[in-house]
Amino acid sequence: MTRRANRKSANGGSKLFVLDTNVLMHDPTSLFRFEEHDIYVPMMTLEELDSNKKGMSEVARNARQASRTMDEIVSSSEDGIRDGIDLDGPSHGQASGKLFLQADAINFQLPEALPTVKGDNQILAVVMHLAETHPDRPVILVSKDINMRIKARALGIEAQDYFNDKVLEDSDLLYSGARELPADFWDTHAKGMESWKEEGHTRYRLSGPLAADLLLNEFLWQDGDSPLQVWVREKQAKSVLIETLTDYSHSKNSVWGITARNREQNFALNLLLDPEIDFVTLLGQAGTGKTLLTLAAALTQVLDTKRFSEIIMTRVTVPVGEDIGFLPGTEEEKMAPWMGALEDNLDVLNGTTGEGGEWGRAATRDLIRSRIKIKSLNFMRGRTFINKFLIIDEAQNLTPKQMKTLITRAGPGTKVVCLGNIAQIDTPYLTEGSSGLTFVVDRFKGWAHSGHITLQRGERSRLADHAAEVL
Question: What are the TM regions of this chain, as residue ranges (predicted)?
Answer without folding.
Answer: none
